[in-house]
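Example 337.
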Amino acid sequence: MLVVMNVHATQEQLERVCEEIRQAGLSPHPIPGSQRTAVGITGDKGAIDPERLQQLPGVVKVIRVTDPYKLVGREFKPDETVIELNGMNIGGERLVVMAGPCAVESREQLMEAAHAVKEAGATVLRGGAFKPRTSPYNFQGLGESGLKILAQAREETGLMIVTETIDPENVTLVEAYADILQVGARNMQNFSLLKRVGKSKRPVLLKRGISATLDEFLMAAEYVMSEGNYNVILCERGVRTFNNYTRFTMDLSTIPEVKRVSHLPIIVDPSHATGKRDMVIPMARAAIAAGADGIMVEVHPNPDEALSDGYQSLTPESFAQLMVEMRALSAALGRQL
Ligand code: PEP
Ligand code: MN
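Predicted structure in complex with manganese (II) ion:
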């Protein structure tokens, strides 16, 4: 259900509606909008009488919501979500470019990557300190010392940091260093992790699961939002198909469909989607052309020596080329970079 407040409704009237919802054993989610504030109601327990809400001061109307996704859906929130982070916007007109190595390997490697992507125009630095790898014998990341290196790179370059958190116990540590918490494809349905990042103050970059349907992807975002964290950035990173010439299949049609049903920003990761360096630039172009709000790409100062995902990592030179193209594309599409 959605309670639509009068444009002139006071803070006290809003609070009264929220209290009424809480008392029925449900959760209120105030949603400020360009026209008016609404209050979304979620929860599996309790029932609330719409008539009773309708009569509270400041309430215009109470609407039954038919979307399976509540907080994620456009029915609850018609306006696009724009996430403000350190004076920068993610979503809306703005395209965001997140770039950096798959994993933080050393101080030298990360600083070199950070300076290169910064110079080319990226605003967010990526790099995993905790790596959920297919094999337990592969490099698992530097852990907290990797996070410290990322924080140093932020100090030196002013880039914001996005890095992966792998389980609920690990979130407190990662949120102490990161600007954006990444939930990886393999954890998209780790519901206890989703609930924990839902309690964080940091925005969440949620990657689509390897075989997740769009409904499952959006429901994972709903888990995060239902805990009160509304700053979710979706990331299409390819799904598994019978196609065997790329690592995954980049599902571009998710972009217009997500835009239709949801207000959340969506970016694309053409590095993991293709697994091949020479496909990253063409597929990044395609993602932006299809309406994505940005890209996440892997860049390594020396891809052939990378400890993970070197074959899909761009060199700093090819990343700079990609950024030239991003600028031209954003201008052509009336967006800002
Ligand atoms: C990553 O971005 O480093 C990563 C592991 O990606 P994904 O979770 O999409 O496989
Ligand atoms: Mn990777």
